[in-house]
Amino acid sequence: MKRASLTGLLLALAIVLATTALAPSAHAQSGTKNLVGFVFDKAEKPLPNAIVYIKNTKTLTVKTFIADGEASYRFHALSPNVDYEVWAEYQGAKSDTKTLSSFDTRPNARINLKVNTK
């Protein structure tokens, strides 16, 4: 009787371990990635309320985010199979355009933007 209970317990443990090993990670399940960062001027001063743009290079769709009081921005649920271009504008001045590549496999990427203020 004890041998049958031990065998059953070991079988159940083996099934749980096999299922856990084969389960996709949370990132793979969601199938998306996130982009976060800060917007600064040339002197590294944060620029709250800067407008950050992100462009999907496949669909050419552009989304925006107004940087918060700490000059941070975020874009969630981005497709991992698309390249994105990101840039910021502040009072008529623009940053260089950066690329978030589909080859970047990080689920949470960070790109800080520096606006070429005068």
Explain briefly what this protein structure is.
It contains two helices and nine strands, in the order ααβββββββββ.
Rounded mean pLDDT score: 84
Give Rg in angstroms: 22 Å
- Architecture, according to CATH? Sandwich
Estimate the helix proportion, in percent.
Answer: 10-25%
CATH topology: Immunoglobulin-like
Order of helices and strands: HHEEEEEEEEE
**Hey, roughly how much beta strand do the residues contain?**
35-45%
Number of strands: 9
The number of helices is: 2
Query: For the record, what is the CATH homologous superfamily label?
Result: Carboxypeptidase-like, regulatory domain
Structure description:
The strands form 2 sheets. Strands 2, 3, 5, 6 and 7 form a 5-stranded antiparallel β-sheet that branches. Strands 1, 4, 8 and 9 form a 4-stranded mixed β-sheet that branches. This protein is an alpha+beta fold and 118 residues long. It has helices at 2-22, 26-30; strands spanning 33-40, 51-56, 62-66, 72-78, 84-90, 93-94, 98-100, 108-110, 113-114.
List keywords for this structure.
118 residues; alpha+beta; five-stranded antiparallel sheet; Immunoglobulin-like; 2 helices; single chain
Strand and helix layout:
Layout: H1 2-22, H2 26-30, E1 33-40, E2 51-56, E3 62-66, E4 72-78, E5 84-90, E6 93-94, E7 98-100, E8 108-110, E9 113-114
Parallel strand pairs: 1-8, 1-9
Antiparallel strand pairs: 1-4, 2-3, 2-5, 5-6, 5-7
